[in-house]
Write the structure tokens for this entry.
Amino acid sequence: MPLDRSLISSLPAFSGLAGEDMDAILSRARSSRFAKDSEIFAQEEEAKSFFLLLSGHIRVVRTSAEGHQVVARYINEGELFGIAVAMGKTTYPATAFAAVDCVVLSWPNSAWADLQARFPAFGANAYRTIGARLQETQTQVMEMSTQQVEQRIAHALLRIVSQSGRKTSEGIEIDFPITRQDIAEMTGTTLHTVSRLLSAWEDQGIVRGGRQKVTVTDPHALMLVAENRRKKPV
Amino acid sequence: MPLDRSLISSLPAFSGLAGEDMDAILSRARSSRFAKDSEIFAQEEEAKSFFLLLSGHIRVVRTSAEGHQVVARYINEGELFGIAVAMGKTTYPATAFAAVDCVVLSWPNSAWADLQARFPAFGANAYRTIGARLQETQTQVMEMSTQQVEQRIAHALLRIVSQSGRKTSEGIEIDFPITRQDIAEMTGTTLHTVSRLLSAWEDQGIVRGGRQKVTVTDPHALMLVAENRRKKPV
DNA sequence: GCCGGTGTTTGCGCCAGCGCAAACACCCCT
DNA sequence: AGGGGTGTTTGCGCTGGCGCAAACACCGGC
């Protein structure tokens, strides 16, 4: 398991840790590859491990009892995920799919208590991650309560692009395949509405679309769309 | 600070702790009262303490940059809240109002690291709380994405009633004052729509309304409403 | 007992966005 | 090169739920 330590040491999940501590933590991890579209873990499944994404992108999907799906979030390189154990849960609350070919580190859940106790900074980083996600999710609820579909999609695009954007000559493009349906499931709308709005924006020169591809050509204009509230101003 | 230890020891926040450990934790806490409608802490404010609700009910409100409000959750007796410190945050992500007269314990944030290290069970309980809230919030996002307003309100009512319901001769009533506006802000709709639906349900004998009061007289019927999906069945 | 404030109900008109449906574009596989 | 599968676009009609507005009920204070 030849891991590039210098690269890994720069990850936020290891910030505040001495090199030797990091080695100790890494020595308990197993590295594995997941092909595009494969499933890393499934909702309701017993949580046996927690993970760190080394490279690629992961789509986290939640399915309701009635069978509806929503995309809870995308995991980016360097992020912890599947950390049910840190929340005292015994099953995963969602399903994780590799959006592209991925490399992940995984630790058995049994290692968590020990790692967390011996390396408080590691535990703290995990808790910080969870806290950040709680806050993001609450923000999402707020957006869904108060904003129009158009603004929600604009916000979602800006968020994705800022976290997983890749600069090209045309603008900033989302560097993993994403369908209109995925965007719809992130924003609580339908792929039709997403498609319509992206088309409209394309006409205005704000984005450029493609099969499983979106490029934001005019982020500033998109921000204006995102902020242009129309509903119950205070 | 004469605290009823036997009562407190039964709280989930202290589960798994020896009596003496509990005493040590409680000895660092300060107890205070908050009158109905007073503010315990405010969004964006620097987080100086974390809290445990001993009695009463607390409404947690999040305000967007544009000034829109949503009710993120209600805190019930025995729950930890304002635990920004456990998430590595330095400010509160929401505002907490006393929905009724409340008694709360509070600890200075500076005590957190120490308490969490010395009494892992206490820390674990806090993290469990956060994890549970993350999951609830994600469920809320899912509901808002896939369900009609009617079902969302039904779900919200059932949730409140199951957590903060008080049995009466008429049915189960929410044992703190809650306005139609509050329910609207929990479910992402308007007080008008909430009022209309409650009226309709009242005609059907499912609930009974009153000023800042809702009593569920037929929980089973309400569950049927909540589950009667009408949108994109799989 | 009256009065003002706050919460609730209800009617009416409208439109954003959904459901349905069909055509289309692109990619990969044989 | 052909063909099928998957993702995208677009038109059309409809409706759930919102905005607006007005009336109403209830409570507490003077």
Notes: Chain B touches chain A at residues 62, 64, 66-68, 70, 72, 84, 86-89, 93-94, 117, 120, 124, 127-128, 130-135, 137-146, 185, 187-188, 229, 232-234 (CB under 8 Å).
